[in-house]
């Protein structure tokens, strides 16, 4: 019996995926475990393996197409089977299994000139139904929407104007039919309506060079950091680290060991030692429970093709410096290409944001929820500092100094604990041979 292959839900928050490439073509044999197709989620490109065997009968979704999760992508079965019949049966079963969600709150009296379409004729996807209900869309305004979902179903993206754009248009008397949308698939956004208002007035305040949809990984980052910044009261602790011995230690390892260690690797190792001594920071706040972890899972922010992503080295407390270096090299390389698996950028207990390679002298990082702390690391710069000789004499010396700044969730982490953590971390960075003990 033919099987319908659907867009998988590869993450808890994933609502749609982009089909990037097929590894099989119609008529070719598909075996379980083979690379079948590539999907780009909000954070990475993932190769999905085949979970069924047979002949690829039909491809429904072509590459570079974004569809909601669970949308049919292809049909696999025995040669000669009717792929369209399998798709039709799948659609009928999905419709029968869908929960009864009202498309909208029925108006008390629909205008005679624009009767609202019956819910069953709108063919809304569940997400679109929820959006219509929650945002109070006029059903009549959706009558001419051309659905791009399975068998013409109207998806949330097909509702071509954002709620804010609709409200502004109503207040300003703008006819949305004459507004060109700049959002995904031509969706009309707030700036599109404001531009139309300015153009109509004949005196635009500013010229718009272009717009970019606030979506995908950028939207996820924004929402998570907003939640963190405005929910967790941040407290900051900064210090300067003399990296003289750290640089010499790294140079010695790279010259004599046969493997290469980066500053990020040493930061991960040092942070792990400090977290083991002060495990209260290796924790998260979940509801009314503070959860402390035995595993030290340290994420390091990396700029990839799809935006910022934080690959996580798991169970650092069990790994040598050589193992940490090998794992970070592999993770960072695939992160920059957007090829991480979901389990490789989730499950962190502490994060590091290192902008030293970009020459940043000092900055502050926002905590990555649900973690309780994040370390911001700046560039190494030669600076004059006061040093004390063995005889107790103070003198000015030029030393390579690196600024570090710890952000903590003050709901859980007290200032004294954070200060002790920073002191422990600094000691391991300034005396890096401690990392080998």
Can you walk me through this structure?
- It is built from 10 helices and 18 strands.
- Helix 4 (163-172) packs parallel to helix 5 and helix 8 (263-277) crosses helix 10 (415-430).
- Helices cover 29% and strands 24% of the residues.
- By secondary structure, the chain is an alpha+beta fold.
- The radius of gyration is 28 Å and the shape is globular.
- The protein has a 6-stranded mixed sheet.
- Residues 100-120 have low confidence and may be disordered.
Sum this structure up briefly.
The chain is α+β, with helices and mostly antiparallel strands and 437 residues long. The chain is built from 10 helices and 18 strands.
Biggest sheet: strand arrangement: 9-18-17-16-12-15
Overall pLDDT score: 84
- N-to-C order of helices and strands: EEEEEEEEHHHHHHEHHEEEEEEHEEEH
Principal-axes geometry comes out as globular
The overall strand count is 18
Residue fraction in strands:
15-25%
Give unreliable regions as ranges: 100-120
Structural class: alpha+beta
- Helix content percent band: 25-40%
Q: Largest sheet, described in full? A: 6 strands, mixed
Q: Report the total helices.
A: 10
Distance between the termini: 60 Å
The gyration radius over C-alpha positions equals 28 Å
């Amino acid at each position: 019996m033919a099987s319908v292959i659907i867009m998988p839900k590869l993450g808890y928050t994933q609502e749609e995926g982009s089909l990037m490439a097929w590894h099989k073509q119609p008529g070719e044999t598909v075996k379980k475990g083979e690379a079948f197709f590539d999907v780009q989620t909000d954070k990475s490109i993932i190769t999905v393996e085949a979970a069924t065997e047979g002949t690829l009968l039909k491809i429904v979704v072509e590459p570079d197409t974004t569809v909601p999760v669970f949308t049919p992508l292809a049909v696999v079965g025995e040669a000669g089977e009717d792929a369209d019949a399998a798709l039709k049966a799948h659609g009928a079963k999905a419709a029968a299994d869908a929960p009864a969600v009202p498309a909208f709150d029925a108006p008390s009296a629909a205008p005679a000139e624009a009767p609202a379409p019956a819910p069953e004729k709108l063919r809304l996807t569940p997400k679109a139904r929820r959006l219509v209900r929650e945002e109070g869309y006029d059903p009549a305004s959706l009558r001419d929407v051309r659905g791009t979902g399975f068998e013409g179903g109207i998806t949330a993206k097909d509702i071509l104007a954002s709620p804010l754009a609709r409200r502004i248009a109503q207040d300003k008397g703008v006819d949305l039919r004459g507004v060109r949308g700049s959002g995904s698939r031509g969706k009309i956004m707030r700036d599109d309506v404001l531009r139309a208002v300015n153009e109509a007035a004949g005196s635009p305040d500013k010229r718009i060079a272009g717009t970019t949809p606030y979506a995908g990984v950028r939207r996820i980052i924004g929402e998570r950091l907003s939640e963190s910044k405005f929910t967790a009261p941040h407290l900051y602790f900064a210090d300067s680290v003399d990296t003289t011995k750290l640089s010499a230690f790294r140079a010695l390892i790279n010259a004599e060991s046969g493997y290469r260690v980066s500053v990020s690797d040493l930061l991960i190792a040092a942070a792990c030692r400090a977290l083991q001594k002060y495990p209260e920071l290796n924790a998260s706040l979940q509801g009314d429970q503070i959860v402390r972890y035995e595993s030290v899972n340290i994420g390091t922010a990396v700029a990839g093709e799809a935006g910022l992503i934080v690959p996580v080295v798991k169970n650092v407390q069990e790994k040598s410096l050589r193992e940490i270096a090998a794992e970070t090299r592999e993770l960072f390389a695939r992160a920059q290409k957007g090829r991480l698996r979901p389990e490789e950028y989730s499950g962190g207990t502490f994060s590091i944001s290192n902008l030293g390679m970009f020459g940043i002298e000092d900055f502050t990082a926002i905590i990555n929820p649900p973690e309780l702390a994040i370390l911001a690391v700046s560039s190494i710069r030669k600076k004059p500092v006061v040093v004390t000789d063995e005889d107790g004499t103070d003198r000015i010396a030029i030393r390579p100094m690196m600024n570090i700044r710890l952000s903590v969730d003050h709901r859980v982490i007290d200032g004294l604990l954070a200060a002790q953590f920073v002191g422990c971390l600094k000691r391991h960075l300034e005396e890096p041979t401690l990392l080998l003990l």
